[in-house]
Amino acid sequence: MKKLISLRHFEIDGCMGLTYMPRGLGALTQLQTLTQFRIGNENDSGECSRSEERKRKRKRKRMGRLSELKFLNNLRGLLVILGLSNARAGEAMEVDLGGKQYLECLRLYWGTTPEATQEGEEALVSVMESPQPRPNFKELFIPGYGGVRFPYWMMMNDGLDLLLPNLIRIDICKCKRCQVLPPFGQIPSLQYLHLWNLDVVEYMQEDYPLSAKPFFPSLKTLAIELAQAQQAPSCPYLERLILGNITRELCLHFISLFSFPLKSLEISGIEDLISLSDVLQHLSILQNLEIEYCSDLATLPDMPSHFQLPQINITPRRDAILLQSTHTRNQGLSILI
Q1: Which end of the chain, C or N, has fewer beta carbons within 10 A?
Q2: What pTM was estimated for this model as a whole?
């Protein structure tokens, strides 16, 4: 592999059987496209025969580590790192994202996370602390991170707007232990924020200096599934709101909070939601309403005469239920049972 010094594009999407990257990849310094980098598990456990043990040793010798990325500074566009739970302590420091000026999107996939011990938590945070993105980054995806807290560079009370001034999209999902979200409201260019399957997150850190800094000044789409959420962020220019697996009270609070600019509302999995009549009365420019798996929903709201909603999609979880409404002005009304 290391002899292919002029290689510029290495595309390995769809290689489902790939378990690690080859050693020597880091010598391909002209590489511009690397669709994924998978960190292998070098700690195979369990008893085995002598021949099997020899195979494991040969595999470890062929296995490239995360440090292979250190000198690949011509990489551009998207970088996907998989298997971060297999990274060694301190190994992520060698990735040197700061030197990769052409990268714009970073996806960090974790896989199986360590047990909930202090040592395991410190190892997780150590790995996350190092791949600090450059200011030109536009997208950040973090699925499956197993730490209780995010790294320092994400939790800065004042300065995240300077660190990531051009970030447009953030996806945080399946982070089962995280309790507090970073102050994403500081980021001036952020337009899409997806927070999904975060079981114990209660709030977003907001205690940074508020001197002339608007909260979520550019956010257009907010998708939230936070089972334990206790408060809603302020998003003055929000156009699309996606809510799932939150309490009925918080759902209604979200809708009322973003009532004026909202054009699209999508609700899923709020089983004790019975009616939306009161809050929807104020969504004067709403163009799309989708409701899925809200099995207790009994009625559709009766909209005021000026309200023109092109489409409503209703998909219940259980057997078909009768939805009653006196709202007949929408020519594009579609109820999907």
Answers
A1: C
A2: 0.84
